[in-house]
Each structure stands twice: as structure tokens, then as C-alpha cells.
Amino acid sequence: MQQEWLGEFLGCRISVVNSMAVGLEMLGSVPLPKFRTHAKLYLDGVCVDTNTALLTSRRSPLLRGRVEQDGHNHVVEAFLFDKGLGVGCRVLVDGLEISLSKR
Predict the structure, then answer these.
(1) More confident of the two residues 6 and 83
(2) What's the pLDDT band for 57 if we cut at 50, 70, 90?
(3) How far apart, in Å, are the Cα atoms of 67 and each of 17, 62, 89?
(4) Three-state secondary structure string covering 3-44
(5) Which of 34, 67, 82, 100 could share a disulfide with 7, CB 3.0–4.6 Å?
(6) pLDDT tens digits, residue range 17-39?
(7) 19 and 38 in contact (C-beta within 8 Å)?
């Protein structure tokens, strides 16, 4: 399953893509589900950060990047978190949340 969120900041297209797969892992003779995630942050179509960790809390960014505008670097942070039966995403630029649309 793949999800994508899109946003924009000062003309820079921001995209967060999260892919998730469920496999099985053996614990002795007992098969247990194992979730694998692969999150990517794209700025203007260029992948600037990836992470394969499990989803984090709403307080810890999973992905980070920078947008340069007029000699100033703006910090982009993406938070991906468990949201019931799905995944939620927030993107902050310099600590301020931007509006996202889900593709």
C-alpha cells in the first residue's frame, strides 16, 4: 500500500510518500505479522530523505530536508504516524504546518 501527500512552500513542491508492506516473521514456530515501511521526502521532485523505521509519534519528525529561498534555508520536517487503520502525515516548514492534499 502506498500513500502520498502533496504541499507547497514558496513555490517548492513538497511530496511525502509512504509505502507499507506486511510480511510474516517467525517467532520460534509462530508466524507473526511484520510491518515494513519506506517513507520518502521529495522537494521539487528530488528525493532528499528516506527512512525505513516504524512510524513515529506526532512529536518526532521521520523525514527532514531544506528549501533554499533568497539565501535562507527553510527546514522541512515530515511527521508520519499511526492513524487508526491508516497513516497520518504532517509537514512543518520552520515549525509552521503547511496544508497538504492526499493523492
Answers:
(1) 6
(2) low
(3) 18, 17, 19
(4) EEEEEEECCEEEEEEEEEEEEEEEECCEEEEEEEEEEEEEEC
(5) 100
(6) 999 777 777 888 888 777 677 99
(7) yes
- Yes or no: say if 47 and 35 are a contact pair by the CB < 8 Å rule: no
Q: Check: CB of residue 80 under 8 Å from CB of residue 39.
A: yes
CA–CA separation, 16 and 80 (whole Å): 9
Residue that the C-alpha cell 528525493 belongs to: 47
| 27 Cβ contact partners less than 8 Å away, ≥ 6 residues apart | none
Q: Are 76 and 92 in contact (CB under 8 A)?
A: yes
CA gap 27, 16 in Å, rounded: 33
